[in-house]
Amino acid sequence: MNNFLKNKHLVSRAGFGIHHNDIEKYKNISPKKLYEELKKNSDYQPLQTDLQAVTAERYQEMLKATDRKPYNQFNKNYNTSVRKSWHSQMINTPSQLREKIALFWHGHFATRLQQAFFNKEIIEIFRKNALGNFRDLVFEVSKSPAMLYFLNNQQNKKARPNENFARELMELFTLGRGNLYTEKDIKESARAFTGWSYNHDPGEKEFLGKTGNFDGTDIINIILEKPECAHFITEKIYKFLVNENPDEKIVKSLSEKFYKSNYDITTLMDEIFLSDWFYSDKNIGAKIKSPIELIVGIRRIMPMDLQNRDTIYNFEKLLGQELLQPPNVAGWPSGIAWIDSSTLLLRMKIPAVMAGYKTLDIEPKSNDDINMGKDEKKVIVNKKQNTITIHWEGINNILNEDLFNLLLSKPNEKLQKMITDFNSDKSKKHLMISIMSTPEYQLC
Amino acid sequence: MIINRKNFIRTSSLAVASFLFPNFLDALTLPDAIAMNGKTLIILQLSGGNDGLNTIIPIKNDIYYKSRNQISIKENDALLLTDEAGINPNLKFFKELYDNGELAVMNNVGYPEPNKSHFRSMDIWQTASGSNEFKNSGWLGRYLDEACHDCQNPTQAIEVDDLLSLAMKGETKNAIAFKDPKKLFDNSQEMLYKKLNADNHDHEHDLASYLYNTLGNAINNSEYIFSESKAKPTDKVYPSTQIGKDFKTISSLIKSDINTQVYYLSTGSFDTHSNQNKKQNQLFKNINDAVEIFTKDMKENGKFNDVMIMTFSEFGRRVAQNASNGTDHGTANQMFFISGGLKRKGLLNELPDLTKLNQGDLIYQEDFRKVYATVLKRWLNSNDQKILGKDNGYYDFL
To answer: Which of A235, A294, B35, B171 is 20 to 30 A distant from A75 in Cα terms?
Structure first.
């Protein structure tokens, strides 16, 4: 396999796919050098929102007002603004590795809230710590208003908030369901987390075989002392970045290195992306792109103007993934869970809709948490409404590339022949859209 | 190239279609893992959290009237079911069903530690999970896994919508969603898709095979569904509302020979935080009119004993109204069962106890998973314990 295909594989996992300006570069650079470059360019910049945030005082005022409309409206608009800003980072920034791993953490420490300030704050925690230390990340998330609010209020278990947090902490965030801990550990650690809010329970607690007057910090530290925690996180990252079917030997070796590094995420990234096995045949084209990977990837390779910028988020929503709105605290499902006949046909249609070859008229599922009783608006794209204009003139150069090599993770001759014949009397633009309308294009 | 639709339809008689798609004939000879018993289930989802207390009204309950100064339904307006219960006047056909013994109502259905987020509570209902569990498959999707584990085309379950609900996604099979059989057909019959499908064999990766099988199923099923939908179209005039159109689509499919056992549709939004009655009345009227025609249609075709409509909503609403003449998110709610084939009819249990509330919310009495178990076992003839993961017991209305 040549460097170009290897580089494309790298950037489809360590980022959101190849950018139309990077094609020449990818032909010449080695994957190792490219990875070092990705790492070097992945510095952190806070998101710039196009909507001015209101002051905290004003936000509180709106929250307490009898008329909740201004509060709801602000949340909705500001959430959209945050979503836009992050989305545009994913498309445009050289900081691909950071944004990709931040998206992983967003699905790992998943919250689904309307409170826009909380959302912005937790997204910044993911972006800032994406390549830092997992320990810092756990502590920051555990103390973030978004997570506390989500688990206590949204989940509606005011009676036993700390128990709920303790359960999710171990089951979803650090150890995995039923791994090492018991119901008793949950109850005991819940007593320890009282120290982080009010009515601290100062008594002695027994947790994962240790006894002491623990508080929340102690509990998290005790969990992180367990190599099982490193294993749980490593396996999940491996599934996200490498292959849905983990190679247990590799995961074990990675997790030992991750543990020894004291949970340094960049160390784990180095071990994955500088390895030879990452580029082995069985790992290439072995993942179904998530809706965000698909749509952001298309926008990186095919620059376009949108009459209505929401159209693009609507595509992702229709396909089942909306930034700031994971389904629940367990995050998005992955792999074949993205695919049913409706979503597959829609995925295959979207490139042609973007090119103006087809129109779209589809009704999203209702979202009453956001719409407050109003009906969901249809997603319509045609020559008059929400038109999308592809900048073909800006990518003339790529139309003369081997488009199969450029767009597919594993170009194969049979498909190539069929698609080429199918487009024999049509333009290169049509050829490009056809390739993007295949089942193979759903893979990376 | 965009296919010439008119030409294609003209030439796509069944024979031509089966010639074009080798898999197509298989779709017509489905081996059924679960012996089909000819029963059809229609799930009607009331999205947004329907206010159950203004649906089945406790007409003798002072707490109800005191808690809802502006929005309560007066005893004289409600249509009487029993001495204590009336039904919302906009559901007047439901009263007729009740009088005929074709309606059963289970009051106060819910689950422990209820969640008040629309999305989350809907997921709990759709996946049949507990409040602390997160499942990636739905209860009807898992039914489909069972019902269709060695059949090729999962047309046993159909959702009348553009997109598929989690309820209809299984571990291995997914139901099919479409608003209109014609639109489904047009969407899937692109020449490119068909060429891709025709070339579909020997994929290196399981994932590619999965994608190609999904594509192949979409193409074959859409053809099958479209032709079935035209076989014996209903001649009844349905309301032109969305729910009217949806029931019309279902009626035509039921009358055909299609193997579908489960239909899923939803209507709303019932999220009535302000000016509730106007909104709820209109939604009820639309439901009432659609169900009325549909019931007559089924009766005239001798199908009503084998068809059952079941309604649910992600939660009910708080007992007390709010300051905007609406209600906020609550907990337990009633479910309706409409069929000529019910074993028990009428109100199946007591109205909710308004003297025993949890911070202003109803305390559920009946678990929705026991309702699902009853429907799966006694209506769909399937292994409810396997599908729901545990023994939930059964009710005797089926």
So the answer is: A294
